[in-house]
Amino acid sequence: MLTIRNLLPGDVDSAIALQSRVYPTIPPFREEQFANLLEIFPRGQFAAVLDGRLVGIAISLVIVWERYSLHHTWASITNDGNFDTHNADFGHTLYGAEVCVSPDERGHGIGHALYEARRNLCRAMNLKRIIAGGRLSGYARHATKLTPGDYAKRVIWGELYDPALRFQLDEGFDYCGILHGYLPTDEESLGNASLIVWLNREYDPSRPTQLPGKDFP
């Protein structure tokens, strides 16, 4: 049985091991980074548990999007992974800083469930949108012939398949352009990511942003 709940301190070792398996060329978060996340915004960190095993995580912040350019990097928007850019008092954007799912457990709807948890959080907090940089995990194989932008367009048109971007499009996100140098250590994407956004159609500008109640998620 798949369960989505908030990430707990006892999940950290398993989360680090999961990141290392899913993204072998990208350094996993350190223990202190997870500790910072669980201190500043515990409601924004999700764990997917299948039959008692941690099989996926989703890491999120609330940011003041207007402070960042359309050409930001993962390091700039998270302050090099310190995550002190989180600002729930003035921010109206939920930023997806990380998602990973065990490759051994695909086909159980884990990624969809984690994305749905984020959407529910966005609605519950009355935030305007979710924004993320989605790594173009298949780009390196086409880099000699296509620019990152051309590659993304061909994925959108259905001429090429990129597992990350196709999944995000199917989850209702819109493609907004390329983030060059987003993750410089990512060999599969050569550092390139797609800027994606999901708009909260239930956002009410007359209501304040607020943390969800105790029964969430």
Automatic annotation (TrEMBL):
Instruction: Tell me which Gene3D superfamilies the record gives.
Output: 3.40.630.30
Q: Which residues form the N-acetyltransferase domain?
A: 2-202
Q: Which CDD domains match?
A: NAT_SF
Give the matching Pfam families. Answer: Acetyltransf_1
The record, for PROSITE patterns, names: GNAT (PS51186)
**SUPFAM superfamilies the record matches:** Acyl-CoA N-acyltransferases (Nat)
GO MF, any single term: acyltransferase activity, transferring groups other than amino-acyl groups
The name under which this protein is listed is: GNAT family N-acetyltransferase
Where does this protein come from, organism-wise?
Candidatus Dechloromonas phosphorivorans
